């Protein structure tokens, strides 16, 4: 295991930890990463990825609040030995393993995610046919798009195994999944797109909660 060494890659343009920290601060200000909630990661060319360290306040991350791990969860780099990778690293491992084009994986907790996760007891939650769905890659008239829902087991590896099992036989329609009573995870081919996907999905969930209150969805 290597200890973290500042290097030539430690610059704002090439080191994704700066953009991850900015995104986390933005999500924190939206109330989607309250306190230490949520975790963000970015894949590197060698297939390892930087992920937020466990239990860090997401509104004030710095580059030392990340751990670089392999696709099998082995720790490669960190600022000090007492920093642990996110408790949900194994979910990021599953996403990067299943979706080779994924370059970023973002997981946030919002009030609306938790509310909409009760709108169905099924394995998939139907999204309203909003124009915003196009932003998630579905260019259809009156789209019938569902987001997969997983149960929030205490053991995170069990959640990860269920994601892996289900997605191995049926790919999701959109690059997102919901964990009931917990949060939403999105993945994308760039950090910018992952941030946009979080915003779009949160907009759709806000709409769903408001529409339910108005009795229209
Ligand atoms: C605020 S507790 C939330 C955690 O249990 C977990 O769900 C989470 O998203 C953050 O865990 P972390 O280990 O900091 O990445
Ligand atoms: Zn979480």
TrEMBL record:
SUPFAM superfamilies: AraD/HMP-PK domain-like. Its cofactor is Zn(2+). Coiled coil: none annotated. One of its GO terms (cellular component) is cytoplasm. It holds the Pfam family Aldolase_II. Zn(2+) binds at residues 107, 109. The keyword Membrane does not apply. InterPro entries: Aldolase_II/adducin_N, Aldolase_II/adducin_N_sf, MethylthioRu-1-P_deHdtase_MtnB. It comes from the Bacteria. It catalyses: 5-(methylsulfanyl)-D-ribulose 1-phosphate = 5-methylsulfanyl-2,3-dioxopentyl phosphate + H2O. Residues 18-209 form the Class II aldolase/adducin N-terminal domain. One of its GO terms (biological process) is L-methionine salvage from methylthioadenosine. It is an enzyme of class 4 (lyase). Keywords: Amino-acid biosynthesis, Lyase, Metal-binding, Methionine biosynthesis, Zinc. Pathway: Amino-acid biosynthesis; L-methionine biosynthesis via salvage pathway; L-methionine from S-methyl-5-thio-alpha-D-ribose 1-phosphate: step 2/6. Its EC number is 4.2.1.109. Binds 1 zinc ion per subunit. One of its GO terms (molecular function) is methylthioribulose 1-phosphate dehydratase activity. Belongs to the aldolase class II family. MtnB subfamily. Catalyzes the dehydration of methylthioribulose-1-phosphate (MTRu-1-P) into 2,3-diketo-5-methylthiopentyl-1-phosphate (DK-MTP-1-P). This is Methylthioribulose-1-phosphate dehydratase. It comes from Chroococcidiopsis cubana SAG 39.79. The lineage of its organism: Bacteria, Bacillati, Cyanobacteriota, Cyanophyceae, Chroococcidiopsidales. The gene is mtnB.
